[in-house]
């Protein structure tokens, strides 16, 4: 019996999965999934830390928990009569692990094995097994994040946490111990000391200067003298959290004289650490009020050239500088004197003002560089001054540096922001397609940004041709810069698609694949690039992360991340690793640069133009908090203006693009077989070819048709061929890239507020899709088959047209004719029919009279299988009579050798 089980209790069985966070589903004793709203109150019944579940997060039927939350909630029985058990032995292991980790977190010995490694936490010297080490590191990382601290601050808190834990010091009986910072005296030194006050009082007590060197027992007032040893211990723990305090006598009250620089270090570092553990910090009220005060700089920017048409990004600009400090105007001489004095706090009139001496030095250096180095517009874009992209006279929150551009420079910047009048680049003659006008704009933009040294994010809607725009760019770049290859990193499910699209549109580009267990590693990888000299290397996110050492050693001509939202979580190892790769040009392709949070946008920009959106903490303060918490329109506009030069986003709803787009775009989606599918495929072909040699013509026809059906089901998913029941999405999806890609694509379409149809020939495939989409995305997906009564069929059609559900699965024969489903903007053909007319009839359920939107048709083809070969044959034979492609019967007339070639699996 599990540790959480009690006789006669109500029981929930938990299904637990973990990536960066835990996802937990609950199933009752009848086997039904239960919404978190029902069972969550029992789990949080005793949990004060989350306000009894008020701060919990739910995603569909999943409860999301950080490692720290998971350990806290499951280290003991959450409720006195409700029992939580694992659904499987693996789930029980997670629950028992929570208790083990909790014991380790409370073990003082743990902190002798914990250290920070950059942004990561490492448990060293074989403390526990690898699973415990990983879990402990994640839990400590989340504890730091919840307190607003970073791994870099771990050395300053480890002793404190080792002694008293993450919750901090318990309240004392009748006193409060605090840290006090007092303003400069006549010697210009600040005073920092440890002080006491009564719990109800507000006046701090500390020994007089003449008694500062006396021990606690002598100097403490009578009312606190009995607590001398306790106060001494608490002071030592308090000061252990202050990096600015280097040494002290443990049996004396601490007091020190500090310079401006030491005070600034304390305010930036120590005060944050102390307050995160609930320790009272007293600083002068005026210092609190002015600690964000800065010198303000106004620069009137102008160009010697008057005509906007001849101003370029490399045009030299000139500045007229003006300064002010808290509203007081300063001359250039005053400003230089302020910098030279190197003080953090000064008096202006009757008020104290804090200035950042390091910032003043940076400003003076920036001004000197601007004057001496002949800045250009391009140089300005990467300075820490996003205000240059705002229209003049916009009300600002007193920006640090305010730029006012003259008319010619503003006109140039507007062109860059709007992607208008970019220098045209000839489309490569060896590109095997014609770019549409908006695609040509994207191609010009890619080349322009490369030449100007800027990374970018191409964020066109799905179906607008991001792939072909990048292929045109690669042809142009590698015709001009032969040598080092370009790297494309993509999800595994679209790796084959990239391979085929490059072969189709740019056969002159030499393409290599870095994928699979036999891929070269170490020196072999370098030798492979040197000997084969590919123009483009394709790899996946998982492989690129695991082979990071090899990939980081190459300075790529360009690095492109397809479906760049895969690095959206900045804290994952995969994201941190890939953002460090080095290339002459960094490009992100994604239709969804932001899926849930602004941190995802930061992560993509950290790859394409590192540092442009600041460090993450500054980005959180400047944009994430005001936008996500306060919904600030002003900050939204500032962020739009800041990212606009580096983000090209077009949607199917853009009226300018609708004129240039076809009403229907058909696209092949190539998917590789998994190793399991490939082995089954080859075995089936070999068995069948041997049998064909012994059969008569009529028997052979029957065997061929039977084999066709088996191969097509196997291309969909091995469980259809093996007649296995559905288990879970986590187990089913990795066994078929095609199924995973269809489920993911349908989910993305639904999340964007669009609707799609999925056609399949097989009832089993429809059920797999239904269950996986429901499990992963929470959508109830109807499946229209030939056995469905007419009134139910009509009701579902009407509901879909009314937008009641986003995804509709249909049997190809039952749903391929007679239905009007124009609410759909996407049609997905899960498996190919040998007669294109049948597929087209199904597509025409959405693409028909009454359809006012662009329709995107996705036809899924498994690489190297009969699906790809038949698709190629149909393309070659499309000029022949319709009788040739009316059914699969024509394949039974092929010779044995032709059939063997048709069925053979080719990697």
TrEMBL record:
Tell me one Pfam family matched here. DUF3670
Question: Which Gene3D superfamilies does the protein's record reference?
Answer: P-loop containing nucleotide triphosphate hydrolases (3.40.50.300), Tandem AAA-ATPase domain (3.40.50.10810)
User: Is the Hydrolase keyword given for this protein?
Assistant: yes
All residue ranges annotated as the Helicase C-terminal domain in the record: 738-900
SUPFAM superfamilies, A to Z: P-loop containing nucleoside triphosphate hydrolases
Ranges of residues in domain Helicase ATP-binding: 447-611
Instruction: Keywords in alphabetical order, please.
Output: ATP-binding, Helicase, Hydrolase, Nucleotide-binding
Matching CDD domains, A to Z?
A: DEXQc_arch_SWI2_SNF2 (cd18012), SF2_C_SNF (cd18793)
MF annotations from Gene Ontology:
ATP binding; helicase activity; hydrolase activity
Tell me the PROSITE patterns matching this sequence: HELICASE_ATP_BIND_1, HELICASE_CTER
The record's annotation in PANTHER family points to: SNF2/RAD54 HELICASE FAMILY
Would you tell me the protein name for this molecule? SNF2 family DNA or RNA helicase
């Amino acid at each position: 019996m599990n540790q959480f089980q009690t006789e006669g209790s109500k029981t929930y069985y938990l299904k637990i999965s973990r990536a960066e966070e835990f996802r937990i589903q609950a199933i009752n004793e009848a086997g039904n999934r239960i919404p978190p709203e029902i069972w969550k109150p029992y789990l949080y019944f005793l949990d004060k830390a989350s306000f009894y579940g008020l701060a919990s997060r739910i995603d569909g039927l999943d409860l999301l928990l950080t490692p720290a939350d998971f350990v806290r909630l499951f280290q003991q029985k959450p409720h006195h009569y409700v029992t939580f058990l694992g659904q499987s032995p693996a789930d029980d292991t997670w629950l028992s692990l929570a208790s083990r980790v909790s014991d380790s977190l409370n073990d003082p010995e743990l902190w002798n094995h914990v250290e920070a490694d950059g942004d990561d936490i490492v448990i060293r010297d074989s403390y526990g097994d690898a699973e415990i080490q990983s879990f402990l590191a994640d839990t400590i990382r989340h504890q730091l994040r919840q307190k607003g601290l970073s791994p870099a601050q771990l050395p300053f808190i480890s002793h404190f946490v080792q002694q008293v834990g993450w919750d901090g010091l318990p309240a004392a009986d009748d006193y409060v111990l605090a840290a006090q910072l007092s303003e400069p005296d006549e010697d210009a030194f600040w005073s920092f000391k440890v002080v006491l006050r009564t719990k109800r009082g507000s006046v701090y007590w500390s020994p007089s200067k003449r008694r500062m060197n006396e021990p606690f027992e002598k100097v403490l007032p009578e009312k606190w003298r009995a607590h001398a040893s306790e106060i001494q211990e608490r002071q030592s723990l308090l000061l252990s959290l202050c990096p600015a305090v280097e040494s002290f006598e443990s049996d004396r009250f601490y007091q020190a004289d500090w310079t401006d620089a030491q005070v600034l270090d304390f305010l930036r570092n120590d005060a944050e650490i102390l307050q995160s553990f609930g320790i009272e910090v007293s600083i002068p009220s005026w210092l609190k009020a002015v600690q964000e005060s800065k010198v303000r700089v106004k620069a009137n920017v102008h160009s010697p050239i008057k005509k906007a048409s001849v101003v370029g990004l490399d045009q030299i600009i000139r500045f007229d500088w003006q300064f002010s400090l808290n509203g007081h105007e300063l001359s250039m001489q005053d400003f230089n004197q302020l910098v030279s004095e190197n003080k953090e706090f000064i008096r202006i009139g009757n008020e104290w003002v804090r200035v950042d001496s390091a910032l003043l030095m940076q400003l003076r250096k920036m001004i000197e560089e601007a004057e001496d180095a002949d800045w250009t517009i391009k140089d300005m874009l990467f300075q820490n001054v996003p205000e240059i992209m705002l229209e003049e006279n916009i009300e600002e929150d007193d920006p640090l540096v305010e730029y006012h551009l003259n008319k010619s420079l503003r006109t140039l910047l507007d062109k860059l922001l709007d992607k208008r009048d970019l220098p045209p680049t000839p489309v490569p003659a060896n590109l095997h397609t014609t770019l549409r006008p908006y695609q040509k704009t994207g191609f010009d933009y890619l080349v322009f940004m490369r030449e100007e040294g800027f990374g970018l994010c191409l964020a066109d809607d799905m179906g607008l041709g991001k792939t072909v725009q990048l292929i045109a760019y690669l042809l142009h770049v590698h015709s001009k810069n032969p040598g080092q290859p370009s790297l494309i990193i993509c999800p595994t499910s679209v790796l084959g698609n990239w391979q085929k699209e490059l072969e189709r549109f740019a056969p002159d580009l030499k393409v290599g694949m870095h994928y699979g267990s036999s891929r070269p590693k170490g020196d072999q990888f370098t030798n492979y690039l040197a000997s084969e000299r590919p123009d483009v290397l394709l790899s996946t996110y998982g492989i690129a992360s695991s082979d990071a050492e090899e990939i980081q050693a190459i300075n790529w001509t360009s690095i492109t991340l397809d479906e760049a939202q895969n690095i959206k979580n900045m804290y994952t190892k995969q994201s941190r690793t890939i953002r460090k790769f080095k290339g002459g040009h960094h490009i992100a392709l994604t239709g969804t640069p932001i899926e849930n949070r602004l941190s995802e946008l930061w992560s993509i920009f950290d790859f394409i133009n590192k540092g442009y959106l600041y460090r993450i903490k500054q980005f959180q303060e400047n944009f994430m908090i005001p936008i996500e918490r306060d919904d600030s329109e002003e900050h939204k506009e500032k962020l739009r203006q800041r990212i606009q030069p580096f983000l090209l986003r077009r949607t199917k709803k853009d009226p300018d693009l609708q004129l240039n787009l076809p009403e229907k775009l058909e696209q092949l989606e190539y998917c590789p077989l998994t190793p399991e599918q490939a082995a089954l495929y080859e075995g089936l072909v070999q068995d069948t070819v041997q049998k064909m040699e012994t059969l008569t013509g009529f028997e052979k026809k029957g065997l061929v048709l039977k084999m066709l059906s088996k191969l097509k089901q196997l291309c969909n998913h091995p469980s259809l061929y093996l007649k296995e029941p559905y288990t879970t999405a986590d187990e089913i999806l990795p066994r078929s890239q095609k199924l995973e890609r269809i489920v993911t694509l349908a989910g993305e379409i639904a999340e964007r507020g669009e609707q799609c149809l999925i056609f399949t020939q097989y009832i089993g495939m429809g059920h797999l899709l239904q269950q996986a989409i429901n499990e992963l995305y929470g959508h109830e997906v109807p499946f229209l088959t030939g056995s469905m009564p007419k009134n139910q069929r009509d009701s579902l059609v009407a509901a879909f047209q009314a937008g009641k559900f986003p995804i509709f699965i249909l049997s190809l024969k039952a749903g391929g004719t007679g239905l009007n489903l124009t609410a759909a903007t996407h049609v997905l053909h899960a498996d190919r029919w040998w007669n294109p007319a049948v597929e087209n009839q199904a597509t025409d359920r959405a693409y028909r009279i009454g359809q006012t939107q662009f329709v995107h048709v996705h036809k899924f083809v498994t690489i190297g299988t009969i699906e790809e070969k038949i698709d190629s044959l149909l393309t070659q034979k499309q000029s022949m009579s319709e009788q040739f492609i009316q059914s699969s019967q024509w394949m039974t007339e092929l010779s044995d050798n032709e059939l063997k070639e048709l069925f053979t699996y080719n990697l």
